[in-house]
Amino acid sequence: MKLSQIISGVIKVLLYFILTVGAITVLIPFLWMLATAFKPYTEMFKLPISFLPKSPTFQNFVELAHTFPLPRLFFNSFFIAGVACVSSVFFATMVGYGLAKFRSRGLNIIFLILLSSIMVPDFTRVIPLYLTMVRLKGDNTYWGVIIVNYLSIFGIFLMRQYAMAIPEELLDAARIDGASEPRILMEVAFPLLRPACVTLLVIKFMWVWNDFLWPLVMLREPKMMTLPIALSGLKGLQVIRYGPLMAGAVAIVVPVAVLFLFLQKYIVRGIALTGFK
After folding, report:
1. Domain span at 82
2. Are 154 and 118 within 8 A, CB to CB?
3. Neighbours of 22 (CB within 10 A)
4. Number of domains the chain is built from
5. Are residues 174 and 188 in contact, defined by beta-carbon separation less than 8 angstroms?
6. Which of 39, 57, 75 is the last residue of a domain?
7. Percent above pLDDT 90 for the chain
């Protein structure tokens, strides 16, 4: 066996070992959360610590359901995240496609300005955005939370990079056949951009679904709150209700995990091909 083959095999083994350790490190908190959600309160603080519950119970989920109006919280979270995702994908696709395929003076400058806005921390914009929403009567409303997330600068960047890989000849052929630019976008470009759209949809859904700061600032009434805000009420100054808190964390994670499992092939393809021209 050649030395180069031995070195290549060793590197591959080390790489798989590092990836396995990284995967285990990421999975342990998730598995611990899942196990704790089914533990009775007495087992959570019992020594020696046991990873798996010895007497599994659904009491934590029952207590969570009695504490919060879960159907209303799920509706709030799904509605805000769903509308924000659809609008973000729609606008990011149009803007990203235009920046990639249209030729006009100043488009690159506009793109650089958009990218530079990513470097501005979100919390620095909370006060001016809140004052603006109050003047527009958008505080404590769904649209007041959605309007901040209706467009994603990262989504514009993602769609632009993906749209640059679309052959110009394909678009020119559609123009020769008499297709308008909106029709070219919807019937020619959009099917090719589908993996990137699905990738952005999942990323944006996770972002808005788990968002805490902006809904906390905007939403005051309990019936308007999202799941992360409601679960923060389980953490008091002196008492933390770990059981219902872990059950609520499982309830938050499950929809995102299911969405990712169903769309993972599109996500991998969208991320892998983004940037290739």
Report:
1. 58-273
2. yes
3. 10
4. 2
5. yes
6. 57
7. 12
